[in-house]
């Protein structure tokens, strides 16, 4: 006989998210910060008491209340971070050891046990390999305590990095496993594990906001010279070689195509893309940060170079316009656990080229171009085909936007709650 899943409501439950990255600039290094911040803010916005524990800025308060005291930030390991001021992953191992040593007992004594005593269920969601050991310890501390039956421990895989450092048998025994995409789940299944898929989400504002005037102007100005947009870390697996090869091939065929690029990550990124582009005969123009969005767009439009190298952090207003105006957004990573850039571009009605690994949301020919190969030829062929089929492009843009609407954080949280309620019912 199956048990009815107990509903997780703001009155009977609270959420604890544990992650290396978080909302502080100090703690922002990639998609994980975007994920945990969006998830935490959405849960708190729905009324749930939500605690986000992360390796935060050592100069900020150790504890901070937001969103009517429903979202509580816990900046952990600040004494370690004080010796590593450049960012969250400097001194990573020291910080991981500090979280592992001090956080499990704190969570049990200060949050989980009091919640259980008050008849509330504590859901602890730990993210990425750095939290795997502390998730195991927390599960073992809970065994035999009254709080065990009123808590749910979940560990989520966002990336296969350092999977070899995880004690999988112990983790699976103490935590329910989830993954950010079917692709990540398949990697876990290859290790004899299983996981529920709970995808990333995007803020609702991305699908509601449409800067149509700026997008329209940029598209009009770019008709004589179609442009692609790519924003990713300057690393081989991000598909930069194929992107530059494709632009070079299109130019040889007379299309006049150019690439607007933001090569983030290490400091050599800006120089790396310049050298790689020039080795292919492509001219490069560096664009420094401008005082306003319109000046940024004007600088991009006025530049005649083949590669427009954005030498500043691209914020949401600019990325949203570039996603929507570009003839193609090259999110063509060799291996992508989820592909948040592709989904954000879809929200802006972008024509997205994905690499076909973790991008569960992308369907070839319906809402995106899903690349089957690693080379530039397929990008070139698809781009030329779409240039001859404006009606198909309009269809892709509309379908992309509809897809993105189903991946707002509100939709993802409903899926998350459903999964967790079923797990709680299975444990009754």
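^ structure tokens above, recovered residues below v
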């Amino acid at each position: 006989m199956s048990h009815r899943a107990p509903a997780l409501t703001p009155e009977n439950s609270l959420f604890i998210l544990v992650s290396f990255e978080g909302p502080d600039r100090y703690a922002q290094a990639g998609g994980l910060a975007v994920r945990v911040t969006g998830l935490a803010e959405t849960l708190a916005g729905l009324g749930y008491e939500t605690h986000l524990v992360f390796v935060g800025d050592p100069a900020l308060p150790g504890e901070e209340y937001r969103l009517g005291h429903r979202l509580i930030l816990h900046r952990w390991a600040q004494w370690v971070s004080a010796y590593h001021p450049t960012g969250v992953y400097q001194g990573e191992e020291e910080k991981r050891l500090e979280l592992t040593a001090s956080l499990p007992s704190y969570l049990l004594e200060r949050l989980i046990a009091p919640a259980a005593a008050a008849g509330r269920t504590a859901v602890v969601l730990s993210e990425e390999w750095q939290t795997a050991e502390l998730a195991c310890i927390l599960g073992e501390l809970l065994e035999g305590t009254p709080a065990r039956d009123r808590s749910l421990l979940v560990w989520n895989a966002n990336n296969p990095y350092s999977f070899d450092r995880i004690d999988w048998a112990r983790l699976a025994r103490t935590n329910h496993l989830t993954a950010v995409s079917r692709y990540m789940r398949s990697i876990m299944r290859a290790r004899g594990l299983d996981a529920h898929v709970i995808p990333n989400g995007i803020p609702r504002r991305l699908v509601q906001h449409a800067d149509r005037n700026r997008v329209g102007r940029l598209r009009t100005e770019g008709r004589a010279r179609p442009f692609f947009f790519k924003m990713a870390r300057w690393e081989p697996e991000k598909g930069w070689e194929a992107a530059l090869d494709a632009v070079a091939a299109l130019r040889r065929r007379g299309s006049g195509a150019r690439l607007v690029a933001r090569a983030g990550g290490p400091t050599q990124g800006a120089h790396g893309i310049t050298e790689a582009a020039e080795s292919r005969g492509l001219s490069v123009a560096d664009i420094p940060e401008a005082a306003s969005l319109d000046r940024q767009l004007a600088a991009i439009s006025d530049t005649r170079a083949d590669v427009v190298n954005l030498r500043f952090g691209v914020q949401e207003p600019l990325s949203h316009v570039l996603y929507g105006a570009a003839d193609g957004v090259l999110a063509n990573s060799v291996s992508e656990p989820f592909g948040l850039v592709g989904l954000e571009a879809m929200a802006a009605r972008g024509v997205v080229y994905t690499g076909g690994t973790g991008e569960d949301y992308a369907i070839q020919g319906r809402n995106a171009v899903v690349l089957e190969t690693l080379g530039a030829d397929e990008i070139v062929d698809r781009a030329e085909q779409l240039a001859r089929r404006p009606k198909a492009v309009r269809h892709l843009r509309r379908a992309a936007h509809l897809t993105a609407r189903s991946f707002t954080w509100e939709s993802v949280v409903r899926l998350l709650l459903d999964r967790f309620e079923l797990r709680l019912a299975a444990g009754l």
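The first helix runs from residue 31 to 45.
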